Amino acid sequence: MKTDIQRGLVLRNEKCHEHYTTEFLYNLYSSEGKGIFDCRINVLGHLQQGGAPTPFDRNYGTKLGVKAVLWMSEKLQEVYRKGRVFANAGDSACVIGLRKKVVAFSPVTELKKVTDFEHRLPQEQWWLNLRLMLKMLANYQISLTEYISGKMEHVTRRTLSIEKGF
User: Fold this and answer.
1) Looking at the domain assignment, is residue 166 inside a domain?
2) Where is the Phosphofructokinase domain (predicted)?
């Protein structure tokens, strides 16, 4: 740290060791780095919600982690000039996730515009338009005209029947 390294990152799993807690590592680095570097704690607890992760969750998390590290490496190479890092562009802080079946990086500045912070959800949910169809499939008493506007000639003519084999 006394050389040309400007920043460091320590990642710790909550189950890595009973004695190597986040607080212990923070205290260790703080006491050893006096005058050389300072430390901060960021616990990303809100990212993990729900029950026990499935094998799919673990596999997907690993893939996203690899993509995130590769993205960070590329970004650092792009903005590294004359021994310094100039990461002040809008896309230097991003969130990785799925966007229309593709893993994509979304700049935080763009996400701020479309996020409902109170409920921690996107302001527009893509699946809300499917609610009426889901009710129809669940045998709710619902009219087709509520879901699809216009004439439904192919349904109202009763050209399809179970007796005739469709």
Assistant:
1) no
2) 7-71
